[in-house]
Write a structure and sequence with these properties.
Shape: flat
Oligomer: single chain
Order of helices and strands: HHHH
Strand content: under 5%
Structural class: mainly alpha
Number of helices: 4
Length: 116
């Protein structure tokens, strides 16, 4: 998304009216693409040593939970139903919550204090 353009966004958003794809939207999509790349790199580096980087994994889990509820909030507060079916919003939220639950289940646990 960092190198996206207006024609690509028109195709990805299922051909909305061209007036709906503004320069601000293209700018925000590029910014979110950069943030997504940054989060991906953080997860990649946390994957290499997950015990030492549990905070990154926990922050990503919390972020996924927040991102699971924001589309549902948009569904009920904005008029987005003409663009996308409500089932897509629910499906995306459920997938994000499932991924957060999987990461929570797989994250390293704190080791108990060894008696010595």
């Amino acid at each position: 998304m960092i190198f996206s353009s207006k024609p690509l966004l028109l195709r990805l958003f299922l051909h909305p009216p061209e007036s709906e794809i503004t320069t601000l939207l293209v700018f925000l999509v590029k910014e979110l693409g950069g943030a997504t790349l940054a989060f991906s790199l953080m997860l990649f580096f946390a994957y290499r040593d997950p015990v030492r980087n549990v905070a990154i994994i926990n922050a990503f889990i919390v972020g996924l939970c927040i991102l699971a509820f924001t589309p549902l909030l948009s569904l009920y507060t904005l008029d987005v139903r003409p663009f996308y079916p409500a089932s897509w919003f629910w499906a995306r939220s459920l997938v994000r919550l499932a991924l957060a639950a999987l990461l929570y289940y797989l994250r390293p646990r704190q080791a108990s204090v060894a008696e010595g």
